[in-house]
Amino acid sequence: TYQGWGELEKHIFKTKPKIDDWTERFALAMDNTAKEKEKQIAEKIDLKDRKKLLDIGGGAGAYSLALLEKNPKLEATIFDLKDTIKITEKIFKNNPNRDRIKTIAGDYEEKKLPAGYDTVLLSNIIHSHSNKENQTLIEKCYRALTPDGMIIIHDYILDNNKTNPEEAAIFALHMMIHRENARTYSWKEITEWLTKTGFTDFQRIELEESRIITAKK
Question: Which residues contact 28 (CB under 8 A, 6 or more apart)?
Fold first, then answer.
């Protein structure tokens, strides 16, 4: 009888309940999740000589803040949707690093990215998109970077057999349920996008649950 119970919401609500502040709730939830990993990422990636970070889909900016605290020469720009950026600016309003953070409203799926950055961060972005969409996004990142620029991809990344680690495999199912063509990707698939675009000098980094791959332009 699971199928019937799985549609319980449909039977209770004639129309789906609306959450007026969904964008803010989502941004804050992602920020809370990021706080569990931000220090790990800041410790594992050496950005001491980097000056301009573009955080794509950066939401409330937890990862950017952690990287700014670790790297005093760094400035960050958070690029996200207009409604999300309003929440980001509200959160940053009284932050001591406010003068080192900029925000740009835009849709990275539809627009080209602002250019002139020596570092680009894609944290928990690729699992929301198809293989083809990610290839296009990686190419946009390449154009946004200065020569010798670095791309940082942080996500649940699968081994090449696509069954491990457990967290990444389960998260692939989660994405399949919630968004068409969305899933987690393997080291091999991500490296193929990067190589096809022109990136080299790959580095793999293990975190407690998620993983990072970096590459140079």
Answer: 60, 87
In which residue ranges of the chain is pLDDT below 70? Answer: 15-20, 22, 24, 26-36
Per-residue model confidence as pLDDT tens digits over 162-182: 999 999 999 999 898 888 889
How many whole angstroms separate alpha carbon 28 and alpha carbon 129?
21
